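Batch manifest line 229
LIGAND: S-adenosylmethionine
JOB: complex structure
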Amino acid sequence: MKIKERVLGRILRWWGPRGGLAQFRRPTGVVGHVVGWIMGGRSSNVARNRWAVRLLDVQPTDRVIELGCGPGVAIAALATRASRGLVVGVDHSQVMIRQAGRRNRTAIRTGRVRLVHTSVESLSISDGPFDAALAVNTAGMWPDPAARLRELARLLRPGGRIALVSQPRCPGATAATSAVAAHELASQLAEAGFERLRTEMLDLDPPVACVIGHVAPAAEPGTRPAARL
Ligand SMILES: C[S@@+](CC[C@H](N)C(=O)[O-])C[C@H]1O[C@@H](n2cnc3c(N)ncnc32)[C@H](O)[C@@H]1O
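JOB STATUS: finished
ARTIFACT:
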């Protein structure tokens, strides 16, 4: 396992700056298939996704949406937890939707997982409401992430939660780079109106940042919002 990790790490370090990173933004064709295979099999990626799913605290009847689901590693972990709910995976790469489909064949057959080939920017409010949303190493790839997060806040029910995850992949990234990434995610969530923000770090190299935020709960009937001073 360690040898496979080292080989994959070397391939990515060589290939990333030579155009490989574009394939992680939207895997296509045969190369995209290999990229999906790497993401689905690399133990650090699997650990990162499973850790994020644990932090999202998914309940058995939850409806959850994953943005940029890639080969469907987190979808599988989400579906195990939302055993009586629904998990919707969204990706703009047809190759990734196919791989996620193969990885989650049984849950799709039983109606617990639905995969949608579309972009995050094409989601509409009628797709919701969801109890929780997850995005692992993808929010930085979206056009106008702040606008996307405002839309996602409307797709979630009052009190619903979101987890945004980032492990910086730039050459020479350190714990300081991850701290900056965490701060950026938190600022974007706060700007989009999410509340009760919490940051968690996973000790990989470099560390993985996960920021969790909540949509404001519904106002109690008969109560008025506090006056702004
Ligand atoms: C680095 S991969 C991460 C995949 C998966 N979340 C994981 O951690 O294994 C980024 C994924 O986000 C998808 N993606 C990027 N921008 C997107 C967008 N605007 N709409 C939908 N999917 C997007 C890509 O196709 C790719 O599958």
